[in-house]
Amino acid sequence: MQIAFYLSGLVAILATLRVVTGTHPVHALLYLIVSLIAVAMVFFALGAPFAGALEIIVYAGAIMVLFVFVVMMLNLGESAVEQERAWLQPKAWVGPAVLTAILLIVMIVTLASGDYSGSISGDPLTAKMVGISLFGPYLVIVELAAMLLLAALVAASHLGRSEAHDEADLARERQREINGQRELEEQTRRTAPPRETRQTPFDAADKDAGTQEGKA
Amino acid sequence: MSHDAVMALLAISPLIVVSMTVVVVMLLIAWRRNHTLSAIVTAIGLNVALLALLFGWTMGTVDVTSVLVVDDLSRFGGVLVLMSTLACVTLAHHYLEGYDGPRDEFYLLLLSAAAGGLVLVSARHMTTLFFGIELLSMPLFGMLAYTFRDRGALESGIKYMVLSAAATAFLLFGMALLYAVTGTLDFAELGAALSRDGGDPWLLAGAGLMLVGLAFKLSIVPFHLWTPDVYQGGPGPATTFLATASKVAVFLVLLRLFQSTLAFHQDWWHDLLGFIAVITMLVGNLLALTQNDLKRLLGYSSIAHFGYLLVALVVNDGLAVETVGVYLVTYVLTTLGAFGVVTLVSSPYVATGGTADASPLHHYRGLFWRRPYLTAVMTVSMLSLAGIPFTAGFIGKFYIIAVGVEAHRWWLVGSVVLGSAIGLYYYLRVMVTLFLHEPGMQRRDATHDWAERAGGMVVLGVAALVILLGLYPTPMINWVSWVAGS
After folding, report:
1. Which of A140, A148, A155 is nearest residue B109 as measured by Cβ atoms?
2. For a tag site, which of B33, B93, B136, B304 has the least CB within 10 Å?
3. Which contiguous run of DSSP H or E holds residue B470?
4. Strand (E) positions, B24-140?
C-alpha cells in the first residue's frame, strides 16, 4: 500500500508539473485529469475512500465541464476538424497515457495482492464518519460554507454580468428615439417638400441596422 | 432545546442576524430593485446585530460548538467590524448613486464580508479561521471590482484575488503541517503541542507558513506589494471596508492565535517578529514619502500602522492586549475619517474607464476654500494618523511606545519614533495641499448636500469622536482594559 501511495503521489506531481508548464489548454486539461485521479488514489491509499471518490466525481467532473466549454468556444467547421486531428497526434496523449498506465498498474497490483482493507495507518474513513463529523462538531462550518458559496455566487454573477442587459435597454431607448423621430418626420412630411420625405426611409433603415448591430 | 444550546445561539446571534440580513436583502432584490431600500434594510440588520452584540455582553464567555468562542475580545472586535461596516453602508449609498449598473449587490457582498469578520474575531479553531478569512475575502473580490468597467477597479479586484489566493494556499499548507504533526486543529491544543515540542522543524515550518498567510492579509512587509494598487483602484466604500473591518478582524485572530498557540518560547521568534515590525514601519513610511496619490499614500500609511501594532504582538505581555485594543479603536476611527472624505469627494461615482475615485492629490488642492468642514475632517484624520496630541491617534501611539519601553525593546521604540517622524512629513504635505490656493485645473468635488447625507454625518461624527477621544480617552481606555482584563 505504501508503494501505491508513493507511486500515485509521484504521478500526481509529474502530471501537475505538466499542467503548469503546458502551453496548450487542452493538453493541460488532460494532465489535470490525470493529476486529480492520482490524488484520488493517494486518498484511497491513505484510507479515505470517501474523499477519493469525491475527488473523482467532483473534480474530474468539473474538468469535463471545462472541456465542454473549450469545445463550445471554438468555432465549429472545417477548422474544428483540423483542430481535432491536431489534438489526436501522439504528442498530445502519450504523456497522460503513460502516467495513467502507471496508475492502472498500481491499481491492478494492489487488487492482485488482495490487500483491500489496508491503509497506511489508522482506520479507513467512511462516508458515515465524514457525515457525522460534518453535522456534529463542524455544523457551524457547514453553514459558513453555505454563506461563502452565496457570497462567491453573488460576486461571480455581478462580475460576470454580460453587457446584454444594458445593451437591450440601450437598444430599446434608441428605438424609442427613432420612433419619436419618425413621428416628427411624419409630421414634417405632411408639410415639407417631397424631396426630404424620400430620404427618411433610408435614414430609418440605417438606424435600424445600427440598432441590430448593437444588439448583436 | 437545552440551556447550553440556547446560550450558544444567543451568543452568536449577531452572526445569525447578519447572515439573515443577507438573505432578506437578496429576496428584496428578487422582488424589487430599490437602491435606497436595500441600503436601509442592510443598515437595520447591522444595527440589530450590533444591539444583539451589546446585549450579549452580560453573558461572559460562551463556547459555541467546539470551533467558535464568544468572549469579550470577540465582542470588542465585533463592535469594530459592525461599526465600520455601517459606515461603509452609508458611504456606499451615496457613492453608488452614480453607478448605472445594478447597485444592490454591493450590500449583499458587504454583509457577507461583515459576517466573515464576525466569524474571524471569535475563531478558536483552524477551520473557523480559514472559513472566516475566506468569507471576508471572497466578497471583497467582488466589492473591489464592483465598478468593473473601470480598469483601476478591475485591476484592484484581480490583484487582490490572485494574491489572496496565494496567501490562502500558504495558510492552508501551514495548517496541514501543524495538523500532520499534532493531529489537532484547536488553537489551545495546538498551543499545548507547540510548547511540548516546539523545536520540531515541521511545526516551525507550519507556524511560519501560517504567519506568511496572515501577514499577506495585514500587508506586513515583505508581503505588502498588493496594498497600494488595491487601495488606489478599488471603489471608495470597498477600500474603506478593506482598510478597517477586514484588517481589524484579521489582526484580532492573529492576536488570539498568538496568545493561545504561537506564543513561541524561543527568543529568536520574537526577534524575527521584531525585525519584521521594524522593516514594516520603515518601509511603509519611506514609500509613502514620494506618493502623489492620496489613496496610495493611505495604503502605505496603513502598512506602517500595522508595523506599529506588531510591536504589541512582539512584546505579548503586560499591557499588550490593551494596547492592541486601544490602537485598533483609534486606527479604525481615523481611517474611517480619512477614507470617508476620499469617498465623499468621489461621490457620486462617475465612470471614467480608468480610476474613478478622486485619488490624485491635486484633486484635493484648495479643498478648504470650497468645503471647509470636509477639510476639517480630513485635517483631523491626518493629525490623528500622524499621532499629534489631542487626537485619538496620539493615545494609540502613546500606548505602543509605553509597551515597548516597558519591555525594554529599544530598537522597536526607536523605529516607532523614527517612523512617526517620517510620517509627519507626508501627512503634513496632504494638509498643506488642502489649504493651498485653488488652481484652475479640473478636479473632483463633493456634492453640495454631502453633510446632510448619512455618509457625511458619519464622517463628521467620526472626526468629532477622534478629537473627543484625544481629549478625554478615559471611557475608551476603561472599556478596552476591561475587555483585556477579563
Report:
1. A155
2. B33
3. helix B454-471
4. 62-64, 68-70
